[in-house]
């Protein structure tokens, strides 16, 4: 909802700074948000001579804030100060009543600042000092947002109260941001005495060697006093990782101990000589505050892009590794092969190792997922590659999202990608019943898994600075946890040397120890075989290109895509009518149309030609369906068929009416003799039929059924019969149908049975 004070701030800022080249004009809509906050930061930077003008708060801007003289309550008749005008805009933006944009810091503004200080849990003075500037002229918020949590607000407020002199003023919105995640590490460094004055920007704060060296030997139950400042951080870290200590007072009690123990167990920190259960050493603290944890810890799993020879495999086993992640396909830098081979499988088995398979032929940036066909292609490719080398039934294959993405990118591209994977994995293509896993940062893993689109997570925790890792707990379904890259001979002296990622191991996915017996293929044959999957990939893709515009893709996502067998898409209940929507897919070219089918014609811009679009709109013009509620469903489907035509680009669309069954059925037919029109090497046929079976609910006073064969024998056309059925679906329509049948002599007045 638009706010008059926000609108006032937007207009003031545009009028005051709009003549400057650095200014980005604000939308004057009365709505607060990130863009307004960035505008306020730009205004502050312009007004105070900070260059470059970025709209973000960095060290230069923070330094300027700290250098400004504090501003106390002014007199009502004092001359206005431009910086105060900016602060008044900031107060409005953050939801505080500044009174006006006058440049005079007076009673209402003072009260607003005091309210902000109270929300931020810093000293309430009513004086504009650097902490007020840092809090208000920022992208931070100081009241719980819709997605915020009360206990996170409490953590944020306590961080401000205890450490704002050193780490500055952070948000108190109940959401773990980059600032909050880094603030925990910075607060630890302040507690250790590494920092005794304001740090500056926290971005990139690291739990490094100095922080490690200054950490207390151990934190444990009953050890409070001087350790309270550390114990609080333990409690904060526990909560952010999904373990509620019940309090944030720094008292290391039995509850804190039990939660620490549970955390250590779930994160697989126990059993490797790393920790004492329930006690917090530096290794435990690293796992509480960073995604990668203690990179020196022992790992039972690993992954690599090297095709392992016998010595390399044995070296891995000797170093304590039990399971190794290996790729099903692909190359490194377009040249060095990284896919597992039959020879490598023997090397791994002989060394006593197990394998978990990874599919990654891309996924390093958003553009990979913007191709909506990518999920289908990857699923087929991975399944085929796994079958070729004998990956046994039920194995989890991990698909990669190897970058840090925003929420909108997640919903718009990553989720559809995994839905496409699931479509193929739930189809007859996946005869080995392989399962989908995900390799990605924490938040992405959890999001996809919570939607039921991945069984296990292989967590990219090594990238601890990713927003999708910062402040997020490890996924509940984590199987593997990649936390450190070993370069060359950093751990052992194999020939040739190779890079290796250390990976935590939960035991949920034990990997493969035995492969199925399959025909041997040389590495060259394996490399060439992906192209042979093109027919299978493109056939399924054609079906999905039909079903998605029609709105039935999710139906197939939750069931199996089967060929030459009718499957249910939807059941629609209307007034006096049930419409049963089904589909059937076959690998033949359809010829059974009523009338002539429409040839799809797409112009060079990718749009339907006008004539083709008109033909689709008139697809059922020869069939009289009457004016019943279900006609809207049919008409909507015809509109969607235009999108189908664009999606498949070539083929034919037609219609047929079936009156031989118990109830009339209207079927739209989409068929093609070339599922890959851009290829000269592939000509494969396919047909998808979408049927609407019309099932009336008869009025009890008319105990009859329409016998279609008898009506056809009597001379009624298919169109007339469909029209009668349509009329019967309307309120009171059955009485009219009965009267008509009596009139034409099909039904006697006394008839009570079927016609």
From TrEMBL:
Residues 314-482 form the Rv2525c-like glycoside hydrolase-like domain. InterPro entries: GH, Peptidoglycan-bd-like, PGBD-like_sf, PGBDSf, Rv2525c-like_Glyco_Hydro-like. Coiled coil: none annotated. Residues 82-133, 233-270 form the Peptidoglycan binding-like domain. It holds the Pfam family PG_binding_1. This is Peptidoglycan-binding protein. It comes from Massilimicrobiota timonensis. The lineage of its organism: Bacteria, Bacillati, Bacillota, Erysipelotrichia, Erysipelotrichales.
């Amino acid at each position: 909802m638009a706010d008059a004070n926000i609108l006032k701030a937007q207009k003031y800022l545009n009028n005051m700074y709009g003549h400057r080249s650095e200014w980005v004009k604000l939308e004057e809509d009365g709505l607060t948000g990130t863009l307004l906050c960035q505008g306020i930061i730009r205004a502050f930077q312009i007004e105070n001579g900070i260059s470059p003008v970025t709209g973000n708060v960095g060290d230069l801007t923070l330094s300027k804030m700290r250098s400004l003289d504090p501003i106390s309550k002014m007199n009502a008749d004092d001359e206005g100060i431009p910086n105060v005008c900016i602060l008044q805009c900031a107060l409005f933006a953050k939801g505080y009543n500044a009174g006006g944009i006058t440049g005079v810091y007076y009673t209402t503004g003072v009260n607003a600042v005091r309210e902000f200080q109270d929300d931020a849990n810093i000293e309430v003075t009513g004086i504009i000092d650097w902490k007020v500037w840092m809090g208000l002229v920022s992208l931070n918020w100081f009241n719980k947002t819709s997605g915020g949590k009360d206990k996170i607000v409490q953590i944020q407020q306590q961080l401000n109260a205890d450490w704002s002199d050193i780490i500055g003023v952070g948000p108190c919105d109940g959401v773990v941001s980059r600032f909050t995640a880094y603030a925990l590490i910075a607060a630890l460094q302040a507690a250790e005495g590494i920092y005794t004055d304001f740090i500056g920007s926290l971005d990139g704060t690291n739990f490094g060697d100095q922080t490690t060296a200054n950490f207390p030997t151990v934190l444990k139950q009953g050890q409070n006093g001087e350790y309270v400042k550390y114990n609080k951080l333990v409690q904060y870290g526990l909560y952010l990782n999904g373990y509620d200590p019940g309090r944030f007072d720094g008292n290391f009690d039995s509850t804190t101990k039990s939660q620490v123990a549970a955390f250590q167990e779930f994160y697989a920190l126990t059993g490797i000589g790393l920790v004492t259960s329930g006690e917090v050493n530096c290794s435990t603290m690293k796992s509480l505050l960073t995604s990668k944890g203690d990179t020196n810890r022992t790992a039972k799993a690993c992954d690599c892009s090297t095709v392992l020879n016998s010595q390399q495999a044995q070296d891995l086993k000797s170093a304590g590794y039990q399971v190794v992640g290996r790729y099903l396909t692909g190359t490194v830098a377009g040249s060095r092969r990284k896919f597992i081979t039959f020879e490598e499988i023997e090397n791994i088995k002989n060394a006593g190792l197990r394998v978990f398979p990874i599919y990654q032929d891309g996924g390093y940036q958003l553009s990979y997922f913007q191709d909506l066909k990518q999920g289908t292609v990857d699923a087929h490719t991975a399944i085929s590659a796994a079958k070729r080398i004998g990956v046994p039934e039920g194995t989890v294959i991990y698909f990669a999202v190897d970058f840090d993405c925003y929420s909108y990118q997640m919903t718009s591209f990553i989720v559809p990608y995994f839905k496409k994977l699931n479509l193929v994995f739930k189809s007859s293509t996946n005869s080995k019943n392989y399962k989908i896993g995900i390799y990605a940062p924490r938040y992405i893993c959890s999001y996809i898994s919570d939607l039921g689109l991945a069984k296990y997570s292989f967590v990219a925790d090594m990238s601890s600075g990713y927003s999708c890792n910062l402040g997020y707990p490890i996924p509940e379904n984590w199987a593997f946890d990649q936390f450190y890259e070993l370069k060359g001979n950093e751990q052992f002296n194999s020939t040739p040397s190779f890079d290796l990622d250390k990976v935590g191991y939960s035991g949920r996915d034990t990997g493969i120890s035995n492969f199925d017996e399959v025909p041997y293929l040389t590495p060259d044959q394996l490399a060439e075989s992906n192209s042979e999957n093109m027919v299978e990939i493109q056939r399924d893709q054609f079906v999905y290109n039909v079903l998605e515009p029609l709105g039935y893709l999710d139906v197939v996502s939750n069931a199996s895509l089967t060929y030459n067998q009718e499957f249910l898409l939807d059941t629609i209940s209307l007034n006096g009518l049930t419409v049963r929507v089904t589909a059937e897919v076959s690998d033949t070219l359809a010829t059974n149309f009523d009338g002539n089918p429409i040839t799809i014609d797409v112009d060079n811009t990718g749009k339907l030609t006008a004539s083709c679009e008109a033909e689709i709109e008139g697809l059922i013009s020869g069939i009289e369906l009457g004016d019943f509620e279900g006609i809207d469903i049919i008409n909507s489907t015809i509109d969607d068929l235009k999108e189908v035509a664009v999606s498949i680009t070539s083929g034919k669309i037609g219609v047929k009416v079936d009156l031989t069954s118990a109830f009339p059925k209207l079927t739209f037919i989409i068929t093609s003799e070339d599922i890959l029109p851009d290829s000269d090497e592939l000509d494969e046929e396919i047909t998808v039929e979408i049927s609407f079976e019309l099932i009336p609910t008869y009025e009890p006073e008319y105990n009859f059924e329409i016998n279609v064969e008898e009506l056809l024998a009597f001379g009624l056309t298919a169109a007339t019969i469909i029209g009668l059925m349509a009329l019967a679906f309307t309120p009171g329509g059955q009485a009219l149908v009965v009267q008509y049948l009596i009139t034409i002599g099909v039904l006697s007045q006394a008839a009570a049975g079927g016609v």
